């Protein structure tokens, strides 16, 4: 390395699949070092939902990263000004907020409203409000327009039992006893969301009554489910990551120990066998033995996130490796093109390997949120960019798809093929979870709106990290970043980008120490097969493959590093083992998946009439900004396929006559579909000629045939 006073530049690129040496300095299991004591009105740093004590990367807090414009700034603004109040208003309307007063007054058996897990929605709203305000300059973490946080907290506090138990569905006069239905009661799940709300409030404001209430609830859980207590688990994981984060906040070892107990107890058959099988709530195999995520998708992902937290804080490399293997197998065989997870409507679960039907894709919004939670934790633990790749895909194509442009209606499930237009849901009643071609304002099971709200609120915390060498950018948005490097050296960065529709990312140095440090930028995996370019402060431009591009030098104020990513639309084909999409292709531009909508077709035509021609490449629409993509193809005439009494025919038989006309098919970003009213939609598009995909070689020679007599 050159002398400190001589500016030098080193540009290095780590390929995506190169092995990453883990930090062997992870703390071994032992007491967590307490951080800043909790004092009233004193925020705790870092102001971030996940603050691991070890690992490869350290997250930057909401006080260090501010999103200033573009795609995500618009959505966070809508979240702050519309979605949070919308969630609060609906929970008032359906009676969920009133459940706490009813519990405090002993009338829950008569007056309680909503499902057994309704308490958790109030907790997620409180968490979202804390993170949203903490990420706004000059924002008051104590409130947001349309949400009286003080009143909500007072109601929650009033319902807590003297021993710390808090649930409005169990344990009161005339109700089922506490923990009498661990399979479906969601009591520990609700406690987990209460604790996460308390952690958010503590990090955003300092200790208040919500924080104290959350700690009392955690103490109750430890006393009740610790060694010698109830040696079972909750049917819905969530308490595990919550307890670990509380341990990180307070330095209390017992919370970490209890989280580790819950992780180790899972898969031991302590829950009753449900109609869906024990895999539904991951009670079929211990976490360390499982090879792929299975069962209810949200449950599986929350459990995996908690297992990563436990592994990182206890130095359990074997547990971390087990979750990494599960993530790899799930991404390779059980994940939709959008990053969505979950193929079964009946039990909201993962399907078998490669069972990914687009028209039956469940891809629950909450599973998308949980997937981002897991990927973020794995990124912090290992530093591997593949985890940020999946988080990006999921954020842009699942999480961003759920809320409408106005932030007041949502998709619960995220199908990839909508066959029937349907009508708009009623604005006055709750809707079924997955039964509409339009977003609904509220659901009988409304876990997704508040999950979207808290994810958008904490989004700045997912953009960047740091380590002893410098700063890493993982997600791209207009942002201002200020942090301190090792030795207390302050760094200030300004990021400008047109992402995700534009591929240019420019990082301008505002402040830098007079010593070398490293700025790292993720080069997304989707650039494979194209060329991304990195330009350093000295003007040198070079091609960079997928992975991490690094610039190491003594930066000066005004220096710029520019990453140019290829945004040409391209055809995507699936692994031939995904039977449901054989003979079809999809289109992706940059990180965004595109779809066809019936509103862009001539009158009387539907998405079922589309055939695309893959002999020519997709092109940007007339504005060239990614708002639309146009693909060559044809549209079958409304009467172009004759009705047949039987939909099957001998191979080689003449197909029904078909008339079609050439057409340029307009596609829009998948996240924007159904914002123009009810429509049909599809992501995977049939081709005018059969697509060719490699056929896997047979694994063995066929066995000889035998007759009934064994010959």
From TrEMBL:
Residues 1-10, 31-48 have a biased composition (Low complexity). Residues 471-567 form the Non-reducing end beta-L-arabinofuranosidase-like GH127 middle domain. Pfam families: Beta-AFase-like_GH127_cat, Glyco_hydro127C, Glyco_hydro127M. Residues 12-26 have a biased composition (Basic and acidic residues). Residues 64-460 form the Non-reducing end beta-L-arabinofuranosidase-like GH127 catalytic domain. Residues 569-686 form the Non-reducing end beta-L-arabinofuranosidase-like GH127 C-terminal domain. GO terms for biological process: carbohydrate metabolic process. Residues 1-52, 686-711 are annotated as: Disordered. This is Glycoside hydrolase family 127 protein.
């Amino acid at each position: 390395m050159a002398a400190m006073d001589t500016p030098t530049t080193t540009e290095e690129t780590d390929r995506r699949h190169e092995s990453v040496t883990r930090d062997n300095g992870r703390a071994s299991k032992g007491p967590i070092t307490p951080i800043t004591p909790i004092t009233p009105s004193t925020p705790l740093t870092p102001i971030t939902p996940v603050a691991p004590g070890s690992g490869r990367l350290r997250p930057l807090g909401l006080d260090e990263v501010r999103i200033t414009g573009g795609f995500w700034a618009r959505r966070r603004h809508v979240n702050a000004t519309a979605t949070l109040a919308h969630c609060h208003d609906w929970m008032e309307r359906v009676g969920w907020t009133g459940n706490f007063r009813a519990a405090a007054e002993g009338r829950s058996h008569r007056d309680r409203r909503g499902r057994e897990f309704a308490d958790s929605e109030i907790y997620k709203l409180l968490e979202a409000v804390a993170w949203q305000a903490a990420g706004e300059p000059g924002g008051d973490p104590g409130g947001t327009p349309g949400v009286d946080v003080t009143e909500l907290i007072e109601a929650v506090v009033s319902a807590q039992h003297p021993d710390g138990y808090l649930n409005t569905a169990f344990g009161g006069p005339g109700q089922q006893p506490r923990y009498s239905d661990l399979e479906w009661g969601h009591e520990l799940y609700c406690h987990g969301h209460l604790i996460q709300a308390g952690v958010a409030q503590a990090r955003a404001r300092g200790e208040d009554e919500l924080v104290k209430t959350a700690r009392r609830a955690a103490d109750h859980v430890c006393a009740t489910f610790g060694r010698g207590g109830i040696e079972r688990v909750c049917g819905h994981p969530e308490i595990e990551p919550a307890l670990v984060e509380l341990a990180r906040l307070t330095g209390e070892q017992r919370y970490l120990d209890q989280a580790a107990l819950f992780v180790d107890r899972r898969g031991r058959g302590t829950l009753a066998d449900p109609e869906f099988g024990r895999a539904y709530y991951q009670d079929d195999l211990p976490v360390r033995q499982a090879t792929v995520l299975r069962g209810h998708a949200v449950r599986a992902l929350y459990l995996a996130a908690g297992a990563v937290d436990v592994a990182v804080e206890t130095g359990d490399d074997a547990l971390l490796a087990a979750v990494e293997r599960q993530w790899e197998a799930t991404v390779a065989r059980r994940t939709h093109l959008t990053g969505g997870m979950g193929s079964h409507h009946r039990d909201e679960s993962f399907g078998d390997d490669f069972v990914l039907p687009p028209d039956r894709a469940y891809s629950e919004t909450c599973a998308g949120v949980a997937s981002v939670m897991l990927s973020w934790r794995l990124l912090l633990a290992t530093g591997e960019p593949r985890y940020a790749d999946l988080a990006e895909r999921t954020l842009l194509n699942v999480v961003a798809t759920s809320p409408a442009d106005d932030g007041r209606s949502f998709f619960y499930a995220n199908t990839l093929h909508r066959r029937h237009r349907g009508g708009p849901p009623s604005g006055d009643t709750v809707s079924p979870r997955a039964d509409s071609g339009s977003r609904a304002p509220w659901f009988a099971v409304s876990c997704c709106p508040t999950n979207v709200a808290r994810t958008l609120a904490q989004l700045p915390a997912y953009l960047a990290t740091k380590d002893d060498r410098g700063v890493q950018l993982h997600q791209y948005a207009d942002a201002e970043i200020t942090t301190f490097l090792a030795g207390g050296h302050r760094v200030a960065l300004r990021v400008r980008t047109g992402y995700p529709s534009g591929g240019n990312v420019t990082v301008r140095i505002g402040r830098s120490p007079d010593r070398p440090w490293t700025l790292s930028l993720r080069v997304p995996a989707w650039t494979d097969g194209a060329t991304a370019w990195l330009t350093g402060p000295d003007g040198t431009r070079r091609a960079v493959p997928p992975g991490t591009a690094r610039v190491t030098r003594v930066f000066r104020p005004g220096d710029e590093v520019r990453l140019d990513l290829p945004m040409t639309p391209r055809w995507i084909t699936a692994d031939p083992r995904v039977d449901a999409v054989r003979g079809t292709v999809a289109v992706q531009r940059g990180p965004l998946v595109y779809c066809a909508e019936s509103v862009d077709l001539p009158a009387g035509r539907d998405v079922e009439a589309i055939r695309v021609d893959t002999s020519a490449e997709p092109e940007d629409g007339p504005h060239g900004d990614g708002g639309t993509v146009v693909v060559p193809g044809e549209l079958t005439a409304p009467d172009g396929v004759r009705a047949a009494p039987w939909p099957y025919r001998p191979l080689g038989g003449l197909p029904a006559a078909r008339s079609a006309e050439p057409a340029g098919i307009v596609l829009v970003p998948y996240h924007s579909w159904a914002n123009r009213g009810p429509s049909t939609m599809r992501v995977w598009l049939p081709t005018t000629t059969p697509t060719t995909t490699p056929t896997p070689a047979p694994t063995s020679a066929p066995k000889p045939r035998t007759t009934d007599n064994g010959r």
